[in-house]
C-alpha cells in the first residue's frame, strides 16, 4: 500500500509537520499526547494536512512493521535509522525507527526505575534533526510549509531549520516550561550545528545546552497552551529562568487554550461509564457515583465526593492538599484519588486513607478507564496547582458535570468561572476558583464547594453551565490555523 504524506497533493491543502515525543492514542504520558493527537483533525477543516513525526518506541513496533520505509540514515547520531510512513487515525504519521535510540524498556524518557536515559540529549536531537530535514525538503519528494515543534523533545528542530537556512516557517509550543531539556554543553559538537549556535543566541543556556531554549530562540512564533500562562511565563515565578527570553520575544508569543476531543470525552457516549447522561439527564450520574464508591472503598454518604486525578507533585499543589485531608473529611466530604508521583506524597495520601477508612480512597498509578469513571461519578475535582499551563482535567470535569475547584493560574483561570455571588446571580458560574495555594485558601474553596453542593438547585446550575461550555478543538484549531496562515503569508 502506498502511503502519501507531506505532499499537499490535494488542491488547496497546505502540508505541515508536527514533531513531538508522544501522541494519543499511540503513546501518552500526559496532556502533550492529547494535544498532538487531536491537532490533525482540528486543522483539517482549515486547509492543513498534518503529518506527525514520532520516535519509534517499542509501543509502535506493529505500526513500524506494517508501514512503508521512505528514507534511511546509515548514521543518525550513531544509530542506523529509517523513516516509516503509517497512519495516525485518518492522518499521515512518520515514525523515526531507530532501535538503538528508542526500542527500550521503560517509558519514553526514562528506564523502568524512573531514571532519565543518559543519552536523552542524543535521542531527541535525532528526532529534531529528522524533523528539520523533512521540513527543509532534504528528503526526496517531501517538503512542508511549516514545522510545529512541541516541548523540549522537539526543541532543536527550529534551531536545525534555522541553521540549515531552510524556508519552512517554525512554531514552538511550550506545554510546560518547567521541563526544558538541559544537557551538558560538551555534547554540542555532536549536534552538527554551526559554531555560532554554541552561544546565547543559539542553544547555550547557563553554560549548558537548552533544547527548549533553542526552540524559543529560533522559532518564528511561540505558543503556550493558555493566554494566562503566556503572560505568566514572562515573570520569574513562572518562567523558570526563561522569562527574559519570553519577554524579549513577547510580540511572537501567544496563548491558545487546548481543546478536548468529544469523541473520547463525552458523558453521553462514554463506554467507561455505567450510566451515560447529558445536561438534561444529570440524575443518571447517581449510578456512576455509586460505582466510584466500591472502586475506592468509600462508604455511602450524603456529602460530596471530591476527586483528584493528577501527578502527585509540588507543582500540582498535592503537598498542600495532603496537609488538609483531615479537615476535608471534617466537612462531611469524601475523596477518591487516582495518581502517582512523589513517593513522599504517595505515602501521605495512603496514610490519610488509613486514618479515614471509607472516607478517603487512594489508587496509586493511572488507569484511563477509571479516570473517566471519576469524571462521570465524582461531584467535584480538586486542582490546586501552583502553575498550570492549560490543564485538561478541569476541561473534562466541565464536560462531565464534575465541578472544578481550582487555583487561579494559567489555563485554570482561563477556563473556570468562579461561583462568586455575581456569577451565581448571572447564572454563569462553572466552578470554584481560589487565589493562592495555601492550606487556608484550599480549605476555604473546599468549604465553599460543600456549601454549594448542599444547595441542589444551584449545584445543578453550575454543572449545566460547565457542560454547556464549548472546549472542543473547533476554536483552538481555528486559532492555530490563523497563526499558521499569518506566518505563511510573511516573506
Low-confidence stretches: 1-5
Query: How many structural domains are formed by the residues?
Result: 2
* CA radius of gyration: 23 Å
CATH topology of the largest domain: Rossmann fold
Q: Please state the second-level CATH architecture of the largest domain.
A: 3-Layer(aba) Sandwich
Shape: globular
**Helical content, roughly?**
25-40%
Q: What summary fits the major beta sheet?
A: 9 strands, mixed
Would you kindly provide a written description of the structure presented here, covering whatever features stand out?
One of its GO terms (molecular function) is alpha-1,4-glucan glucosyltransferase (UDP-glucose donor) activity. Keywords: Glycogen biosynthesis, Glycosyltransferase, Transferase. With 491 residues, the chain is α/β, with parallel strands linked by helices. It folds into two domains: 14-259 and 474-488, Rossmann fold; 282-470, Glycogen Phosphorylase B (Rossmann fold, 3-Layer(aba) Sandwich), CATH 3.40.50. The chain has helices at residues 31-43, 61-66, 99-102, 120-135, 156-164, 188-191, 211-218, 227-232, 236-239, 243-248, 285-295, 318-323, 325-330, 343-355, 368-377, 393-400, 410-415, 421-426, 439-454, 456-468, 473-488, and strands spanning 14-19, 48-55, 68-76, 79-88, 91-97, 146-150, 169-174, 182-183, 204-205, 208-210, 221-224, 253-255, 305-312, 334-341, 360-364, 380-383, 403-407, 432-434. A nine-stranded mixed sheet has the order 3-4-5-2-1-6-7-11-12, with helices on both faces. A six-stranded parallel sheet has the order 15-14-13-16-17-18, sandwiched between helices. It has a three-stranded antiparallel sheet with strand order 8-10-9. Helix 16 (393-400) crosses helix 20. It is globular, with a radius of gyration of 23 Å. The two termini are 38 Å apart.
Amino acid at each position: 500500500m502506498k502511503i502519501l504524506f507531506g505532499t499537499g497533493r490535494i488542491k488547496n491543502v497546505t502540508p505541515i509537520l508536527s514533531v513531538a515525543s508522544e501522541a494519543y492514542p499511540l503513546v501518552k504520558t500526559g496532556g502533550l499526547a492529547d494535544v498532538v493527537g487531536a491537532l490533525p483533525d482540528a486543522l483539517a477543516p482549515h486547509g492543513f494536512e498534518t503529518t506527525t513525526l514520532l520516535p519509534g518506541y517499542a509501543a509502535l513496533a506493529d505500526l513500524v512493521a506494517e508501514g512503508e520505509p521512505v528514507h534511511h540514515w546509515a548514521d543518525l547520531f550513531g544509530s542506523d535509522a529509517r523513516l516509516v510512513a503509517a497512519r495516525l487515525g485518518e492522518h499521515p504519521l512518520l515514525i523515526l525507527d531507530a532501535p538503538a535510540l528508542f526500542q527500550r524498556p521503560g517509558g519514553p524518557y526514562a528506564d523502568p526505575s524512573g531514571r532519565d536515559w543518559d543519552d536523552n540529549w542524543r535521542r531527541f536531537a535525532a528526532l529534531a534533526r529528522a524533523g528539520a530535514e523533512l521540513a527543509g525538503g532534504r528528503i526526496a519528494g517531501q517538503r512542508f510549509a511549516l514545522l510545529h515543534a512541541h516541548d523540549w523533545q522537539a526543541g532543536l528542530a527550529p534551531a536545525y531549520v534555522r541553521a540549515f537556512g531552510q524556508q519552512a516557517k517554525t512554531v514552538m509550543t511550550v506545554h510546560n516550561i518547567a521541563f526544558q531539556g538541559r544537557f551538558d554543553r560538551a555534547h554540542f559538537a555532536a549536534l552538527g550545528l554551526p559554531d555560532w549556535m554554541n552561544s546565547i543566541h543559539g542553544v547555550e543556556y547557563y553554560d549548558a545546552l537548552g533544547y527548549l531554549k533553542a526552540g524559543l530562540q529560533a522559532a518564528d512564533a511561540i505558543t503556550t497552551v493558555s493566554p494566562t500562562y503566556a503572560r505568566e511565563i514572562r515573570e520569574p515565578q513562572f518562567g523558570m529562568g526563561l522569562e527574559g527570553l519570553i519577554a524579549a520575544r513577547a510580540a511572537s508569543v501567544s496563548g491558545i487554550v487546548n481543546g478536548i476531543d468529544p469523541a473520547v470525552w463525552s458523558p453521553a457516549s462514554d463506554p467507561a461509564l455505567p450510566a451515560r447522561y447529558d445536561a438534561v439527564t444529570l440524575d443518571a450520574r447517581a449510578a456512576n457515583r455509586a460505582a466510584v464508591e466500591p472502586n475506592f472503598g468509600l462508604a455511602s454518604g450524603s456529602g460530596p465526593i471530591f476527586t483528584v486525578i493528577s501527578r502527585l507533585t509540588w507543582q500540582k499543589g498535592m503537598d498542600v492538599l495532603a496537609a488538609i485531608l483531615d479537615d476535608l473529611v471534617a466537612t462531611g466530604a469524601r475523596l477518591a484519588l487516582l495518581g502517582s508521583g512523589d513517593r513522599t506524597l504517595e505515602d501521605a495520601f495512603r496514610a490519610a486513607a488509613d486514618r479515614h477508612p471509607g472516607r478517603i480512597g487512594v489508587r496509586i498509578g493511572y488507569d484511563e478507564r477509571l479516570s473517566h469513571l471519576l469524571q462521570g461519578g465524582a461531584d467535584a475535582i480538586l486542582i490546586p496547582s501552583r502553575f498550570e499551563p492549560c490543564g485538561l482535567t478541569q476541561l473534562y470535569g466541565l464536560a462531565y458535570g464534575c465541578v472544578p475547584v481550582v487555583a487561579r493560574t494559567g489555563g485554570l483561570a482561563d477556563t473556570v468561572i468562579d461561583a462568586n455571588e455575581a456569577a451565581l446571580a448571572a447564572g454563569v458560574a462553572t466552578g470554584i476558583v481560589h487565589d493562592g495555594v495555601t492550606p487556608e485558601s484550599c480549605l476555604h474553596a473546599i468549604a465553599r464547594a460543600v456549601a454549594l453542593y448542599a444547595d441542589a438547585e444551584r449545584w445543578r446550575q453550575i454543572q449545566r453551565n460547565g457542560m454547556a461550555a464549548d472546549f472542543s478543538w473547533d476554536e483552538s484549531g481555528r486559532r492555530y490555523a490563523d497563526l499558521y496562515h499569518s506566518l505563511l503569508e510573511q516573506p
